[in-house]
User: Fold these one by one.
Assistant:
Number 1:
Amino acid sequence: MLTDAERARYARSIPLLGEEGQEALRRGSVLVIGAGGVGSAALLYLAAAGVGTIAVADGDRVERSNLQRQILHTEDRLGENKALSAARAMAERNSEIRIRAIPEHVSRRTLPELARGYDFVIDAADGPAAKLMINDGCVAAGIPFCHCGTSGLRFQVMTCLPGRTPCVRCAFGSPAAGGPGSTLGPACGAAGSVAAAEAVKYLAGRGELLTGRLLMGDLAAMSFRTVPLARDPDCPTCGAAASRAP
């Protein structure tokens, strides 16, 4: 049961989630890969929502150019590892949750072990290669995850339930690698906020997830649309051939 302190803290969300939904959040666990622009918003909202266990993995250090969009970090943390900085910020937001900082980059080798035991993963990493690695690892492990991407004033978000809904490779194939681009902070915030909402909905069993569809937003035009997605039977990650692979 929720404590009186928890009922007071979550008084505005309990009417939406119910006490059982809020308790489900307390029991839930989320791994966020990347503590940059998207990860900043996602982590802050997950902590504020009362997700009981939150892990954040990032091997980078806070740089001055990050402060324009990575709202977890502050000037006094320049040079600090981003995962450690993120953990400090979340602890300041909610002292009643468990936080794990993983101060390293996630790799294809380390992802299965890091993700084991978490209910949901948020892909807030940079670059197509990292995102496909997260997709492939989560699908192989059967862990639900949310994919996020930003560019300029645009963002995109989708959720995958492995074995049931399209994965990132179904949606995009194998995009070519690209370098860092320009991004405005609010686009990162929008993607991270949606990703946090997906995690909360999944854990609490409320609402409709972004499965089988891609949410695309353009803050320059202030336009939003969802694009339907279908599983690719020939997908090398989740298709029929992949399921038969040894």
Number 2:
Amino acid sequence: MNDQIVELIGADYGISWLSWGVQYFFLIGLSYAAFFLSLPAFLFGRRDLDGMARLALVVAISCGIAAPIALVADLHQPARFYQFYLHLTPGSWMSWGSLFLPIYVVGLLIYAWLVYRPGLAAMANTGHGPTATALRILSMGGNTSRGAIRVAAAITAVAALLVALYTGVEMAVVATRPLWHSPFMPLLYVTTAVAGAAGLSLLLGRLFGAVDDATGTRLSGIVMAGSGLTLLLAGAWLLAGKLGYSPSGQVALRLAADYNPLSFSGLWLALGTLAPLLLAKRLPLLAGALTVLGAWWLRWSMFIDGQRIPKTGAGFYPYELPVGAEGLAGLLGTFGLWVLLLLMVTTWMPWRGQHPTVR
């Protein structure tokens, strides 16, 4: 009888969704959440919320334009994006997302243009030369189109809801990644996006001197609400894992206790979620900054750390953040792109002025 040697080899799967993917999910979450924060004033006529809406719309536009660019970069070969439209796959949430995303971005830009039209006309009347001419053409008369704003807001709102759904479900349906495969995933993405959008609006308001005490209080309240809901969801998720009802929650507990406790437990749960809830009234600017960090760090932990957990076997796949375009340079480049878009919006758009509301 011959002895047989059976050799088991564990494959080391590399990180396929890189930093660009984290940036996309982060930026698009801030964008759709900020868009909804702009609706009470611009759509429902809440003049007392005009300050919050103006800041939120700046966040929605700048993040909404930067997000698809990060997504295209994550395809490794940007020209691949057209394949989504040549080969639509009804059973794929990613395929549906390729339809939802452009509808949302285009709808957001049309909605913002309709809101800004009177302000663009006012800027054209006070200026001269080619710039004034371009603004006059862009404003197309500068009329307040209440009905058009209502239609654009409705279409964009539906698209934003679909984007929020697909960006969460796209990960939640991946059964081969136990950490992602949970109904808590889409909900956590939404609550952290809302808190992050309010926090970023608050920071920009202070930076540009465009936030009064009432607006700051409202945004701080949204930061607290978003952070509180996030903590409740995270607690329910981890408790379900502890009780054995959620395999995803069990993996999250391992992530928090064994794999990367500083990243998941420290930077997200404690610093990015609990701290803003406790500090929102006393130190609103710090709380706002921490919610933005928390929204980003949740996505980093889910994307990067989630891919480091082996599908079979024990251990933890090694990962070091590359310095090049697929790592640190990609993160800094996306941030630089967002800053550029932010400067363009705040320089060329009449975001400080009074905008029309629909009554």
Number 3:
Amino acid sequence: MRFSLEEWRPEHAASLAESAADGRIVRFLRDSFPHPYTLRDAEQFICLVQFECDGYYRAIVADGKAVGGISVVRGEDVFRKSAELGYWLTPACQGNGIMTAAAAFACREVFASTDIVRIWAEPFSVNAASCRVLEKCGFTKEGIKKKSVFKGGAFYDSVIYALVKE
């Protein structure tokens, strides 16, 4: 499946709301990701990343629709040379290599255009697909944080992965 990474624009709002509304997405995301995801949520998010957020925020676009999102957000203070990678993809598009290609591209672009030297991610340990994406992109598993996530009334471990600029 062909896709592109595009800066978020107001034209993405309707398809973002449609793609993000799938309840299967939120099970492995932070509680700050709205559910149900509405058109208003999409419009507010796009406005926020266009005008108020520093960082790398891109829409994953396939067949003219926003089907996911990816971000690389710089840390603060002593962590200012590190950044956190986050991503999601609507289930209808999963299993086609889109996220692996998008994450690899985003990391290359951030390393080439910024002074970031370390990109890290922290998926839930039960999210095997997300862990595979990171491993395919060359991330190293650095450790497991026991019961670090409380989601949906249950505790989960999270896994720390990192990719370091050579």
